[in-house]
Design a protein that fits this description.
By secondary structure, this protein is an alpha/beta fold. It contains 13 helices and 16 strands.
């Protein structure tokens, strides 16, 4: 599976700062100190609908992580998956009468278009669950053979009790875990499970559903969490720098994935840091496909909205905050974009060094994009009010905003 084309990232004078970011697993801010190649895994879409602003906000957060790392002169090895076979996808295909593979391909293509328009940096590997089945099956077999998994009516479940670190990612109590498991794709009430929280690793083939050869597991298809584990272990290995996604993935997805990997390898941790973006709502409710209250990036683009303005909507909110989208967000972003473009259109202006360092400092402080925007606002206001004599300063600001915020002026 291929990703989308990369936009060029300008190289700025000087060097950026190491990123301090909130780690869900510790509840504290930590300083990320990757090696020369920073390793990032961000959970991708289940392609049964187009990219909504909630998706875009999550990928924007981890795009900023990459940009901060690149500004420190590191390379970035970024992986993103596509859950191109799962219950929601199959259910949507059945409801619409469309072949599930065609639905997945169409929505994945649209996702690529949206990411390109928003100038999100692409992953080095963009990997589907279907193409990962050959990597998933041996992991499930190994977990079963070592006693960390068990069969139930042909299905294979992971035993959460096999990982002594289970619970360290989300830090939730058992009652909350059980509730969220039921709400987020688990089956805590299924009879015969050793622990209600045990997640599915391999689902035995069922009539009318796609299935693959699972060797000693029999025909079937993979569970949700083991998909990301197989991809991450293949391309990044254990102990990679950041596991990222929306806050609704902390449990069960990231918790279960960490335990799968730690049990099968005997190593800890799966990821050094767990970073989660907030939820985007509309009219007071979380924006989600199940709720049907979605604002699609592609729909905004069809209406003629500049994708850069959409990106500025996202940047105006701290990545960890939950927020509600309104039409006013887009109006303010469009006005800000016009002010910035007017400010950098002049041949000279106020000195640029200070604003570049303000942007760097803001982003290094837990990706404080709103503070970075405010720094550019102040420079643009000074340009409009007083102008300046620093030849080339507008170009420096333009390149900095592009490199660090992904905003093309």
């Amino acid at each position: 599976m291929h990703a989308w084309p990369a936009s060029e990232v300008p190289v700025l004078p000087g060097q950026g700062r190491d990123l301090r970011i909130h780690d869900t697993a510790t509840g504290e801010r930590v300083t990320l100190t990757p090696g020369p190649v920073a390793r990032l895994y961000v959970c991708g879409i289940t392609p049964y609908d187009a990219t909504h602003l909630g998706h875009a906000a999550t990928y924007n957060a981890f795009d900023l992580v990459q940009r901060v790392w690149l500004d420190t002169k590191r390379q970035v090895h970024y992986i993103q998956n596509v859950t191109d076979v799962d219950d929601p996808l199959l259910e949507r295909a059945a409801a619409t009468g469309e072949e599930w593979t065609a639905l997945a391909e169409r929505e994945t293509a649209l996702f690529r278009e949206d990411m390109t328009a928003l100038r999100m940096l692409p992953p080095r590997e963009f990997v589907g669950a279907v193409e990962s089945v050959p990597d998933i099956v041996p992991l499930v077999e190994r977990l079963r053979d070592m006693g960390a998994a068990y069969e139930l009516e042909g299905d294979v479940y992971f035993s959460v009790e096999s990982d002594r670190h289970f619970g360290e990612v989300s830090r939730l109590d058992a009652a909350t875990m059980r509730r969220l498991s039921g709400e987020r794709g688990g089956d805590p009430d299924r009879p015969g499970k050793k622990n209600p929280l045990d997640p599915l690793l391999w689902s035995a083939a069922r009539e009318g559903e796609p299935s693959w050869d699972g060797a000693s597991l029999g025909r079937g298809r993979p569970g949700w969490h083991i998909e990301c584990v197989a991809i991450a272990l293949r391309y990044l290995g254990m102990g990679f720098d950041v596991q990222g996604g929306g806050s609704d993935l902390a449990f069960p997805h990231h918790e279960m994935g960490a335990s799968h990997a730690q049990a099968v390898t005997g190593e800890h941790p799966f990821a050094r840091t767990y970073v989660h973006a907030g939820m985007v709502g509309l009219d007071g409710a979380k924006m989600s496909k199940s709720q049907g209250n979605l604002v699609f990036v592609s729909a905004l683009r069809r209406e003629g909205v500049d994708p850069v303005a959409i990106r500025l909507v996202l940047l105006a909110h701290h990545y960890r905050a939950d927020w509600d989208y309104t039409a006013g967000d887009l109006e303010r972003a469009t006005e800000r974009l016009a002010r910035w473009r007017a400010a950098v259109s002049r041949p000279d202006g106020p000195p640029a060094d200070a604003v570049v360092e303000e942007i760097r400092a803001a982003l290094a402080d837990d990706l404080d994009a709103p503070a970075a925007l405010a720094a550019v606002d102040r420079w643009a206001a000074a340009q409009h009010e007083h102008g300046g004599t620093d030849e080339g300063a507008p170009g420096v600001v333009s390149r900095a905003v592009d490199a660090l915020l992904g905003v093309a002026l």
